[in-house]
Hints:
A: mainly beta, globular, B: mainly beta, seven-stranded mixed sheet, 52% strand
Amino acid sequence: EIVLTQSPGTLSLSPGERATLSCRASQSVSSSYLAWYQHKPGQAPRLLIYGASSRATGIPDRFSGSGSGTDFTLTISRLEPEDFAVYYCQQYGSSQFTFGPGTKVDIK
Amino acid sequence: QLQLQESGPGLVKPSETLSLTCTVSGGSISSGSYYWGWIRQPPGKGLEWIGSIYYSGSTYYNPSLKSRVTISVDTSKNQFSLRLNSVTAADTAVYYCARHGGSWYSFDYWGLGTLVTVSS
């Protein structure tokens, strides 16, 4: 099983600031199978990025994904009030999905 | 617009079987391009994939849950279902159904989730 580790656990920032979230895998992940989600309390998770760097339908261009191998990054260029949430990375490999533990982005 | 909705009992007794159904609307579950899956989130914890099914009935499961899980599909009703047997308090969670592609393997449509509590 590929284990995903996310850092930091919590990121305290102000609206307008840049957020950089990290996702590290215990072994190499195909870039095609790395995704990022935004999750707010009481809502369904929302797909932001698939294939490590492709934005899902309707996702603003302030969200971007990058990385390969074992190190992946989600960047939010300028935080909007609605962006404060928990962010999860997810990978698919060896016929199973795993999620990272999440990074909470909260208001400073 | 594709919509998924989970339904089933919100309370299950320990050692019994948890049963949930996901109803898909706004699209066909028989679309050949997609799989249908279950994911859960225990209180205060992260997301855990349970398993997925193709409309043909082909399934694959999280190895850690495989011995207790059955996912089935009913194309005539545009639904797929989850059964998790021998539940314990550790199975208390919000259960989500979701769709994922067979190319990118990411979950693009989700239900709102349903809380299932395991308690006597």
